[in-house]
Amino acid sequence: MRKLLFCLALLPSFLYAQPDSLYGVVSVLNSRFDKGRTEFVANAGIHCSAQLAGIRVRTGPDGRFVIGRRGQEPFLLVLDLPDYEVANLRDMQIGPGMRDTVHLYVIPGSSLFETTQRYYAIVYAAMEKRWLKQAAPNAVHGEEQRQAAAEKCHLVATILSRKFSSLNLDDTSPAFQDAFRRFQAGDPDLALLWLRYTKIDSLNPRQQAQLLDFKADLHQIRQEPDSAEQCYRQQLLLNEQNVFARWHLATFLNHQGRNGESVEHLEKCLPLLRSGIDSVALLLQLGNTWKTLSGYLPEAEHSFLQAVSICERLAACDSAQFTPILAEVYGSAGAFFGDTEALPQAANMFEHAQSIYKRLRQHDLPGYGPLEANMTLAFAMLLVQHAQLENAARMSSSALALQTEVLLTLQASPGQEYWLSSQFNARLRDSLEARRQYQAVVELQHLRVRCIDTLRALDNRLVQQAALEYGNLSWQLLFTGQYPEAEHAARKALELDNTQLWVKTNLGHSFMLRGDLKKAKQVYGTYIEGDGSKAKTMLLKDFIALEAAGVRHKNIAKAREWVEKQ
Fold first, then answer.
1. Is residue 530 situated within a structural domain?
2. Residue 69, pLDDT score
3. Residues 6+ apart with CB under 8 A from 46
4. Contacts of 420 (CB under 8 A, 6+ apart)
5. How many independent structural domains does the chain possess?
6. In sequence order, what are the residues at sequence separation of 6 or more whose Cβ sits closer than 8 angstroms to the Cβ of residue 308?
7. Where in 414-539 does DSSP place strands (E)?
8. Domain ranges, residue 517
9. Residues 6+ apart with CB under 8 A from 322
10. CATH number at residue 13
11. N or C: which terminal CB in the chain sees fewer CB atoms within 10 Å?
């Protein structure tokens, strides 16, 4: 049985309140939305944090419970329920004088992960489709533009998928539910269209705010920032004290690069929050925003350390619930210290995060393998920045291997995930190559090839990516004098995708550097016939790069002279 002990620490003292009784109800998140009726949780044990050894009350058939208060301090509810998570953590904190009935919404842990992944895929696919449609009439976009677009899609998809997966749809209006069903079906555009024709005047202010918030999110997915901002500000007009509306606006302003405005809203939010876990999240965002403003690094550091301190206390109260969050907080603090050149502090934070994720993964908990891989990649990037390339290469290799293992275990479609996770390895490879650590480059590229060979069995879209990896390997092997291996890698690349003509340069170089200039010329000739002046330019650049890397052979000069005459 998993014990969910929800503890909020480092919070201000509350005013004195007389002992009384607290009423509550426990139900399954979105059960009425999903099944047409509310599914209550019966016979769940529950008590307050100040009475850990005390007698637990039990929820009735309708999920209801009554629990006594004690003393003048706030307390936290303790819920014993196997394999479930509480979606609304902030509502587990009970302050003196609170009279409202507490509604706790629980969800199976695996279900929460799967729902988050599904919503992520919907948002990412919609944003990617939108970007490709907008980019089509323009000039061809290069790798940098593609990467920037992917990172933006990933950021928004991550934020919105987490937000939607814990959303209590049972407590929303029919209009909201109708629109959300269309989003769930994978059509955010249709969901927004539905909302445009929804009359909200008959709804109460809270329901109106919910619709406006969802509408703003959909505009973000469609990459319509002006419309999104208008919706966020309309929420605040309904209620200036709506802390989450203000917080969402601040987050949006962050994404738009308007960080000064964002800080103003975040600082207004902080005293309005009554939940420790909300405070942690907001402090991290505030720290990252302070960091972007000139002269405010002390304020940023204070925010990060405060978030770490709060979350450590939360994890001490409930390891199962808050330790994964603590790992994420450590990672965020590590990234901050890395950016400010404080290597010892950054390394300490990253090591704590890695340790937590490794422990969680070893307990076969879903979703923690990719998180450990991403944290390891972030740590490796920090080491690259401080010229610790040997350790960085080792970490990067471990992270990519772990990512591959996880994707195979989940039997997922890994095309998008592989591309995102491999971008760091490509940057690390370039850093190693710039420092002429060619053997380390080859070892890293061998790993990438092994990973892609394994993953393309799951996703046939990776065939072209596999050809690219083999082509890169064939080029890098030339720098280490492994010419037969370079030939083999080049042939494998062309076997996978014979349209990638540039790989023929590496095939020709492997012959040329082994003394077979005649055969090299034949390969160069077919490449030039296929790609014309572009091929000649690439070949000449390759000769320069080989010589600059210390590769010496009399045939290089002869090959260059021959290519120039073509």
1. yes
2. 63
3. 24, 26, 56, 57, 58, 59, 65, 67, 77, 78, 79, 80
4. 150, 154
5. 2
6. 329, 330, 333, 349
7. none
8. 464-566
9. 7, 277, 311, 314, 315
10. 2.60.40.10
11. N
Higher pLDDT, 483 or 455: 483
Strand partners, 274: none
pTM over the 0.70 mark: no
Spatial separation of the C-alpha atoms in residues 251 and 232, rounded to whole Å: 10
**Domain end among 107, 140, 156:** 107
Task: In whole angstroms, give the CA distance from residue 55 to residue 172.
Answer: 35
Q: Cβ atoms within 10 A of the Cβ of 54, count?
A: 12
Largest CA distance in the chain: 95
What's the rounded Cα separation, in Å, for the pair 376 and 353?
9
- The DSSP annotation for 138-180 comes to SSPP-HHHHHHHHHHHHHHHHHHHHHHHT--GGGS-HHHHHHH
User: Helix, strand, coil: what percent of the chain each, to 5?
Assistant: 70, 5, 25
Quick check: 119 pLDDT over 90? Answer: yes
| Torsion, Cα of 221, 227, 228, 231 (10° steps) | -140
Is residue 187 situated within a structural domain?
Answer: no
CB 111 within 8 A of CB 29: no
For the chain, percent of residues with pLDDT exceeding 90: 31
Average pLDDT over residues 67-93: 75
Q: Does a structural domain hold residue 505?
A: yes
In a domain? residue 152: no
In the numeric block, the tokens 């350390």 are attached to: 305
Helices 483-496, 503-512: axis angle to 10 degrees equals: 150
User: Torsion angle of alpha carbons 142, 143, 144, 147, nearest 10°?
Assistant: 130
Read off the DSSP letter of residue 13.
P
Contact of 356 with 327, CB cutoff 8 Å: yes
Q: Which residues contact 378 (CB under 8 A, 6 or more apart)?
A: 331, 334, 335, 338, 350
- Rounded CA separation 380/391 (Å): 7
Q: What CATH number should be reported for the domain holding residue 562?
A: 1.25.40.10
Q: What are 402-438's pLDDT values in tens digits?
A: 666 655 554 444 444 454 445 556 666 676 677 677 8
Q: End of a domain among 107, 122, 154?
A: 107
Tell me how far apart the alpha carbons of residues 370 and 334 are, in angstroms, rounded to a whole number.
18
- The residue among 93, 96, 106, 103 whose CA lies nearest residue 273 is 93
Please enumerate in sequence order all residues whose Cβ is within 8 A of that of 144, keeping only pairs 6 or more positions apart, or say none: none
Pairing of the two strands 75-80 and 45-48:
antiparallel
376: closest CA among 364, 305, 160, 361? 361
